[in-house]
Specification:
This protein is 23% helix and 41% strand. By secondary structure, it is α+β, with helices and mostly antiparallel strands. The protein has one domain (2-153): Alpha-D-Glucose-1,6-Bisphosphate, Chain A, domain 4 (2-Layer Sandwich), CATH 3.30.530.20. Strands 1, 2, 3, 4, 5, 6, 8 and 9 form an eight-stranded mixed beta sheet that branches. A two-stranded antiparallel ribbon has the order 7-10. This is STAR4 protein.
Length: 155
């Protein structure tokens, strides 16, 4: 999946809200828990997070364990990750898997104070799910992601 939108803020502040850390749980309605399991350097970690059930719980809550890295990329920032086979799955969750994913955030040259945020998401929710349910959930999740992020940045 690819998601793209203009966000009214600077790249550093936007990426601080997306990457693993204290802001994400405050605004992202899909993420229910997030634990940093290992930190390798300031912008590099292994995190475990859980997501809420979706589509009236047709898609049960999921758990992911991802390696995450954030770095400067051209004029902006890149935060990327990939799932790891790490630790036991917690009860009441299905372990999902993220293939290489990333969020690119670059300033808009013609519009100071605005940034272009582009996400590439390759997730396997796993479990017995019809692809149409996954596609529906992903489209609403990504739309809500941008809406919730924009609200969080205004506070």
């Amino acid at each position: 999946y690819k998601a793209q939108g203009v966000v009214e803020d600077v790249t550093n502040r936007i990426v601080d809200h997306i990457r693993p850390g204290p802001y994400r749980l405050d605004w992202d309605s899909l993420v229910t828990t997030m634990d940093i399991m290992e930190t390798f350097e300031e912008n590099c970690c292994v995190m475990r997070y859980t997501t809420a059930g979706q589509l009236w719980n047709i898609i049960a809550p999921r758990e992911f364990v991802d390696f995450s890295y954030t770095t400067v990329y051209e004029d902006g920032l890149l935060t990327c990750g990939i799932s790891l086979d790490y630790g036991e799955v917690r009860p009441n969750f299905v372990r999902g898997f993220n293939h290489p994913c990333g969020w690119f955030c670059v300033p808009l040259k013609d519009c100071p104070g605005h940034s272009l945020l582009t996400g590439y998401i390759q997730t396997e929710l796993r479990g017995m799910l019809p692809q149409s349910a996954v596609d529906t959930a992903m489209s609403s999740t990504l739309a809500n992601f941008y809406s919730d992020l924009k609200k969080a940045l205004k506070t």
